[in-house]
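Inclusion body protein, pasting as requested.
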Amino acid sequence: MAQDILIIVNAKTGTVQMYAADPSIVQGNSQGSNELWVRVPASEQLRWRVEPLQLAEGAGGEADLYHAIITKVELWGATESPPQGDASKYLVDWISNNGAGDTPYYSAPGTITPGKNTFGPPTPVATQGINRPFIACETQMSNRDEMVSPKIAYSFSVDIYLGREKVNAVTWDPFVTVYRP
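Structure tokens follow.
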């Protein structure tokens, strides 16, 4: 099974918000926090995807669109502050993936006419293939591990682009707790 975490970065201010697709894994720091703390069992895949917050569509098309991508991961350590131990024992097998999949879109954008006391006519929807890059790792704990549910600090660095030009970089450090199921 995989646990997905969405990272939203304000493209202009660099403000970060993180959301777990499954809210039951949120341990501390609420949904939308920049230091989201999640608790997941060993042998679970964690996947992080970053999206830029775009407050307005530019007139120039693609050149005015923001893009964001995770460019660096750093593991700090395990246990409470200051983080100690070897975090790479718990978060292993890191990969990057372009995450292709089908995404719905409005095939005929325009006016929607609601029905009176009923639903109006359906809005035409289609799907198209789109890449949604993500970074992933596996969680693990050995049977001999003396630490019970270690809290792991890690950092992400995200580059933000406007069109093809890098305009900002953001770094922050959330947490993962790994436990034996």
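Note for the archive: The mean pLDDT is 84.
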